[in-house]
Fold:
Amino acid sequence: MSGEHILIVEDEEDIADLLEYNLNRQGYAPLSVATGEDGLAQARETTPDLVLLDLMLPGLSGIEVCRRLKGDPATAAIPVIMLTAKGEEEDVVAGFDAGADDYVTKPFRPKILLARVKAVLRRGAARPVRANEILELGEIALHPGRHEVTVAGQPVDLTRTEFRILQFLVSRPGWVFTRGQIVRAVHGDDYPVTGRSVDVQVAALRRKLEGSGSLIQTVRGVGYKIGD
Structure:
């Protein structure tokens, strides 16, 4: 029995009840609220281990709730899984840009939802990478301090941007990032790089990594992730 506190922000009572039922069965401690305003208040008061957040809420939207949670140092580390009715690409991208960690499309299968919850809780907050730490994924080994990458023991020559994109992805295996998030992580805010530029850099990375390049996966309509 895990006992993690999970806050459900969902205005449809039958869906909230279904979520509570399945989470309770797995040993979690769920709490439901029906509005974005109540969701923010509860998150700030109780600091849950995870938030399940409906995007289509009365009043304050799920996107805005997520943006405020991630913009507040007191709640920024709380992982957020979006619940979206249609799975429209623009909704998913907007949710990730607001800081969401994952999404589940309605109607959902409880087993799939619970697997996503477990995966996001297992990831935990992203930790800083030390300069002398070697990041490894499959046959890829990345040394931040020496700015070196090898695949199966063979050195790979990367540009500075390619290296930083790879480091960003490898340090968070399984996480999905939009092109905008990748640009901000690599270059900082307000950097004049388009999403198309990220695609070009990722394509170059895949070629240079050869067989291991397939670890970098395209998430259609959203962005990229590496491994799992």
User: Anything to note?
Assistant: The first strand starts at residue 5 and ends at 9. Residues 5-123 form a domain with the Rossmann fold fold (CATH 3.40.50.2300). The longest helix spans residues 195-209.
